[in-house]
Amino acid sequence: MTITQQDDAPSPQQDTGHTVRPGALYVVATPIGNLGDLSPRAREVLAAVDAIAAEDTRTSGVLLAHCGIQRPLLALHEHNEDRIAADLVRRLQGGASLALISDAGTPLISDPGFALVRAARAAGVPVYAVPGPCAAVAALSVSGLPSDAFVFAGFLPPKPGARRARLEQLGREPRTVIVYESAHRIGEALADLVAVLGPERRVALSRELSKRFEETYSGTAAGLLEWQAADANRSRGEFVLLIEGAQQAADLAEGERVLRLLLRELPASAAARLAAEISGAPRKVLYAAAVRLTGAQPENEDNSGPR
Predict the structure, then answer these.
(1) Domain housing 258
(2) What percent of the chain has pLDDT over 90?
(3) What digits encode the pLDDT tens for the residues 159-214?
(4) What is the pLDDT of residue 247?
(5) Whether residues 230 and 208 fall in one domain
(6) Same domain, 237 and 173
């Protein structure tokens, strides 16, 4: 096990007169759309390192030019990463400072970089994170699905049979599931989602996060399929799909069953509160269902207490 030790030396933010440290690797998050999301620290690090390892030097060159940064660029992608990682580690051991970036977002999250970071760690080279945008976390934050526990599962398989098998497996996961999908497969993936997990499974889909045409849908799987098919533009861009965890879905189904029984005798607010206590489903979700089922006027509920 290797540990990046900073207790006996100033951190990169505290260094006097130095933005980066010699012989260190910096894993730098870059914008997923809006160039304004590049942090001031990321700019400083990218401008100060000896070289930048980039997934696609052309794509990264545009970002660096926009920021007025001129540093040597090295191509590091899925086809050469294993081969050149050792050479880059030797450069780091020789005192060079390097930054690692992907085309967009945080490196290693369905992007290259793992082989380099692992090799650097094994060689005792210090590795520092320069945090920033990540499409998976950004989509989760606006999804309306539980965010206290989640699992990121990368891209779904491209072939239909493997994709359905993977969805069936992920559908048993008790935590919120986050996956990426490409524009040319999103329609088929959503159809498989409905077929495998059922039309009522709660899901969310974000496209073009932080870009001009950003959209997020949150609702049922069947509703998502209809929403996506209603506008051809919703098949364009980059997608993050989120799937409600199996236990959450089971709790909600039981909660709605109990809610319907309680609504025969109780007003919407009281029925939702009791149904949540009995089933473990979120009270706010059950209250919204109660309002929908009864046509009651929504109340300004107290936001305190567990949800």
Answers:
(1) 248-294
(2) 81
(3) 999 999 999 999 999 999 999 999 999 999 999 999 999 998 999 999 999 999 99
(4) 80
(5) yes
(6) yes
Could you count the other beta carbons within 10 Å of the beta carbon of residue 44? Answer: 16
CA 102 to chain centre: 15
Q: Give all strands of the β-sheet with 239-243 in edge-to-edge order.
A: 150-155, 176-181, 239-243, 202-207, 215-220
What tokens were used for 20?
């980066």
CATH code, 200: 3.30.950.10
Containing H/E element for 135? helix 135-143
Query: For residues 286 and 155, what is the distance between their CA atoms, to the nearest angstrom?
Result: 32
Conformational region of residue 117, where left means phi above 0, alpha means psi within -120 to 50, and beta covers everything else: alpha
Q: Which of 133, 148, 181 is the last residue of a domain?
A: 133
Q: Where are the beta strands (DSSP E) in the chain?
A: 25-28, 51-54, 73-75, 98-101, 127-130, 150-155, 176-181, 202-207, 215-220, 239-243
| Within-domain flag for 237 | yes
Q: CB of 77 within 8 A of CB of 56?
A: yes
Last residue of a domain, one of 87, 118, 133: 133
Confidence of residue 1 (pLDDT cuts 50, 70, 90): very low
Q: Residue 280: CB partners within 8 Å, gap ≥ 6?
A: 251, 254, 255
Q: How many CB atoms lie within 10 A of CB 220?
A: 18
277: left (phi over 0), alpha (psi -120 to 50) or beta: alpha
> Is 215 found in the same domain as 195?
yes
